[in-house]
Specification:
Blueprint: E1 9-13, H1 20-33, E2 40-44, H2 50-57, E3 62-66, H3 83-89, E4 93-96, H4 99-105, H5 109-121, E5 125-130, H6 134-138, H7 142-153, E6 166-169, H8 183-200, H9 203-208, E7 210-213, H10 222-226, E8 233-236, H11 243-250
Helix pairs in contact: 1-2, 5-7, 7-8
Length: 259
């Protein structure tokens, strides 16, 4: 189980799914079922549903998040959405550098860095994603990839600026494939991330940093993952669209409750 000083966080990434009516229904169900959850809960719907989901979540313990952000505050950037606009919708979190953004849309570490800076500038908490492909894991390059992404994405920040930062470790080979890193594999990568942040910035920042696991998190494996000391939560894709499964995930059981 993670440190008591780090409150667990479970974020649901709805990706490019659900129309407005479906988004409303799912958001209501998650809000109504989130009472007494041990984790902070964040829902990240598509941009089109941010305002309607935000209205539903207003006054509840469930937070609103976005799936991406532009690094510019305003201007002629067709198709983009800015950090101030997300804040105006009621967002508290934003996913940055998701593997699908990196792999499908060519997002680079320097873009991740600029997006994190933009988010922090308006009080949004970035959920920065890092992770390796299957080829990189098989070639024993996992730690090299993680170090490169962390150094590039977090370059030129002061430790105090990163107090709201959340990092999600998402092995690319486990996203949407049904494959999941074993709890021990995930723990090893999370520990490496925490040690790298301690080296780059400070042990204090690293000790308080919430690290999420993302990669086919399900009701069936969440308890084992959350039992590991450096796993502080989850970034959930497909199962965040399934009411019963996501509610079970946010109500994960601590080791003492299992069995």
């Amino acid at each position: 189980m993670s440190s008591p000083s780090r409150r667990p966080l479970i974020a649901g990434n709805w990706k490019m799914h659900l129309n407005l009516a479906e988004s409303v229904n799912l958001a209501k169900a998650i809000k109504d079922g989130s009472g007494a959850a041990p984790a902070e809960v964040v829902l990240c719907p598509p941009f089109t549903a941010l305002t309607v989901v935000g209205e539903i979540l207003k006054g509840s313990v469930v937070r609103l998040g976005a799936q991406d952000v532009c690094w510019e505050a305003q201007g002629a950037f067709t198709g983009e959405i800015s950090a101030p606009q997300l804040g105006d919708c009621g967002c508290r979190y934003v996913i940055i550098g998701h593997s699908e953004r990196r792999r499908l849309f060519g997002e680079a570490d320097w873009q991740v860095q600029k997006k994190i800076k933009a988010a922090l500038g308006v009080g949004l908490a970035p959920i920065m994603c890092v992770g390796e492909t299957l080829d990189e894991r098989e070639e024993q390059k996992t730690y090299r990839v993680l170090q490169t992404q962390l150094e590039g994405g977090l370059k030129e920040f002061a430790p105090a600026q990163l107090a709201q930062l959340v990092i999600a470790y998402e092995p690319v080979w486990a996203i949407g494939t049904g494959k999941t890193a074993t709890p021990d594999q995930a723990q090893q990568s999370h520990l490496f991330i925490r040690k790298t942040v301690a080296r780059l910035y400070s042990p204090q920042l690293a000790a308080g940093l919430r690290l999420l696991y993302g990669g086919s998190v399900k009701a069936e494996n969440v308890d084992a993952l959350m039992a590991r000391p450096d796993i502080d939560g989850a970034l959930v894709g497909g199962d965040s669209l399934k009411q019963a499964s996501f509610l079970r995930i946010i109500h994960f059981k601590a080791p003492s409750e299992v069995g």
